[in-house]
Amino acid sequence: MSIVLGAFYFIYLKLAHNNQLSFSSFIAFLNKNALFSLKSIVFLLILTCFNWFFEILKWQNLISTLKTISFNQALKQTLGSLTASIITPNRIGEYGAKAMYFTPNLRKRVMLVNLIGNLQQMSITSIFGVIGLFFFINKYQLETHYFRLLIILVVGLIATGLFIFGLEKYNIKGFSIQKLKTFVQHFPKHQLFIGFTLSLARYLIFSFQFYYLFQIFHIELNYFNSMLGITSMYLLTSIIPSIFILDVVVKGSVAVYLFAFLGVNQLVILSIITIMWIFNFVLPSLIGSYFVLQFKIPKTET
């Protein structure tokens, strides 16, 4: 119950006390422009459902290497762990939350499987992001901003390097790079391929959802230019540590900076970021809260 109350409280804080865009201003802006029709809302919901449908399928596929679970179980574990991880930095609480759905003898390996799934999504984000950022910098002549972008990338790489070094040197809580390498090497290649495919499908869906919101707000950007900004934004925000509930703030700041070069109004960008956050995280978290309340620790198997 405390996890659900905490999740609701943080969502409320984010919506009611957003320094970048107050919720009242956000609602007034949408009402004034009458941008959303029932058709648009339904289509956005469909995209959100497919986004999480593929994430649930990915988890069901990856965890099948340890234990076969139904789609319904994968749904409960995915959305329940999302709710439980809201107040943790970079959703790290998701690892422990998913592990709790399994017996103690499986939990460490469950956390490694979850890590593989997240690394697959991060790999897709990085590949598209690096390509998009390269073309973005060259197209919009960001020579004077190279240093700022370089600092962000270097800080991200240093933080990653220190984390890897810590795992390698100190073998934190039984985890090490060597154990992870061994685990991945013995992981079924078929499941890895399916995982990457589903990660790609998710990326294409939520990036298109962002582009579709541009169309709703009557932003005159073609698909290519829009994707340059979208892929660059997701890359930069993925390497900036943040508490999940502040993810919308981080994305908003980066998006405002990037899309200013494309001539997109700041209020429009912040509104789109807020809508993406509500559809893709708040709504699934509210559904996940039901599964958290229904959670029971599994009995140890003999």
UniProtKB/TrEMBL annotation:
Keywords: Cell membrane, Membrane, Transmembrane, Transmembrane helix
Pfam annotation, one family: LPG_synthase_TM
InterPro entries for the chain: L-PG_synthase/AglD
Protein name: Lysylphosphatidylglycerol synthase domain-containing protein
Membrane topology: Multi-pass membrane protein
Compartment(s) where it occurs, according to its Swiss-Prot or TrEMBL record: Cell membrane
Main location (coarse class): membrane
Residues that span the membrane, as ranges: 34-54, 110-137, 149-171, 192-214, 234-260, 267-293
Top-level taxon of the source organism: Bacteria
